[in-house]
Amino acid sequence: MSEKRLAGKIAVIVGAGQQAGETVGNGKAVAVRFAQEGASLLLVDINEEAARETLRAVQDCGAQAAVLRADITHEEDCRQIIQACVERFGKIDILHNNVGRSLGDRPTMEMPIDAWDAIMDMNIKGMFMTCKHALRQFVAQGSGCIINTSSTSSLSARPTVAYKTSKGAVNTLTQHIASENARHGIRANVILPGLIDTPMAIERRARERNISRETVRQERDALVPMGCMGTAWDVANAALFLASDEARYITGVLLPVDGGLLLKRG
């Protein structure tokens, strides 16, 4: 049997829990795929019980794992994420940032400042802070891999301003980190999910519009050139590739996982 692709690797998954729903979320799927391929995991989420659900799933795969509750909008929590990982596992090889929100977004002239700040704090400020503290450890080690989650919204026309702007900033931040730290043996890449069938994508839209989940799915499927939304497993497999040694010569890349959606929207 060939060696597992992440054997001996230590990964931090930020946003490892998920909302309740009928399908798996991106963070949980990434955690499971990393576990299946031999990684040990620190599962980070503001909702500790959601992270513990993911813990049970990765333990079923035989992985060593621990849970940490953290709010990435606070820098001390971001510092403690990296410290906790190193104290528990001795190092950190992979930082996967999967936290984001769009709740409260509006067209530019209608955008409340408090909603703007909340989206920016979570989507870009929090990611900057987790990367900042991981980089200190990565530079000391002489190696490390960062995978940040953006969105195809960052590269396409959208009706609202804050989510798109924050995800565009994720792209730029990650490319800067890649350029700045390549000499230290550190890679940084971005995944841009398109329309993905996750609880975060489906549940709120069905609730806010008072329509069925299936109607939401049919509407979203119709927008994708390949004929249907992707799943969190599609995102997880992209993350697995970028985290693995198969991608050892890849850095600064924006990788769409979108069924061709950007071919229409770009």
What would your notes on this structure say?
With 266 residues, the protein is an alpha/beta fold. Helices cover 47% and strands 14% of the residues. The chain is built from nine helices and seven strands, in the order βαβαβαβαβαβαααβα. It has helices spanning 26-36, 48-60, 75-89, 113-141, 162-181, 199-209, 213-221, 232-243, 261-265; strands spanning 10-14, 40-45, 65-69, 94-97, 144-149, 186-193, 254-257. It has a seven-stranded parallel beta sheet with strand order 3-2-1-4-5-6-7, sandwiched between helices. β1 (10-14), α1 and β2 (40-45) form a beta-alpha-beta unit. The longest helix is centred in the middle third of the chain and has 29 residues, at 113-141. It is globular, with a radius of gyration of 18 Å. The mean pLDDT is 96.
List keywords for this structure.
266 residues; 7-stranded parallel β-sheet
| Assembly classification | single chain
Structural class: alpha/beta
Order of strands, widest sheet:
3-2-1-4-5-6-7
Low-confidence spans: none
Net shape: globular
Sheet-strand content, in percent, reads 5-15%
Order of helices and strands: EHEHEHEHEHEHHHEH
The major sheet is characterized as:
7 strands, parallel
Helix coverage percent of residues?
Answer: 40-55%
Number of helices: 9
In total, the number of strands is: 7
What is the gyration radius calculated from CA atoms?
18 Å
Could you give the distance between the termini?
Answer: 43 Å
Rounded mean pLDDT is 96
